[in-house]
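Project standup — Tuesday

K.O.: blocked on the structure for the chain from last sprint. Re-posting the sequence here as requested.
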Amino acid sequence: GFSAGPAMTGEPWNGPELADSMRSVGFEDVAFYVSTWTNAPLQIERSAHKLSRLREAGYSVRTLDPAQLNAELAWIHGVTVAAFSAPFNYMFHPIGLAEFQAVLGDGGGLDPRMILLCTASDGAPAGFVYCTPEAGGVASIKTLVVHPAHRSAGVGGALVALAHETCRALGFRRIAHALMRADGPSVAISATGEHEVFRRYSVMEAAL
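H.V.: unblocked you, prediction finished:
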């Protein structure tokens, strides 16, 4: 992705000429991603029914507990592997739990207030949303994950609405939905707030 403005946390940042150069030597586009700006008040308003339905079904949402960081990271790792492993995403190759905990185990790059974990009525993990602070009063919704067992329950839309509420309460003036697969469900959730695409990305591959 390349456009005016600073790169966001974890965002690929390549000049616009790179894609054409890669295509010229045999690479092909296999997936497209986008980042969007969303109208936060509209996103919250239009997702209110999802929040109500989620609570009525016995789901609960809490922030990450830094005092139990290793256990929380194991919780997040388990949901992520379940949600993204084949057949859901053949490009996903998870790292092991121990490595995942080692990378994030000091908690230094995490703001627990901006990580929301959703649990079903039976205590099972249902999903999470992970946000990061960016430059210029911007917050980025970086990762939205819903466990396959809880899809179509409104978990994703409810978590995004709560993420908007949380980021606004923390003083962020603008919220980006970052690096969403263009044909994935996150884009439909983002569109609830009449989003505006501000960056596009391509994943490429070539036969060796």
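K.O.: great, moving the ticket to review. The mean pLDDT is 90. The radius of gyration is 17 Å.
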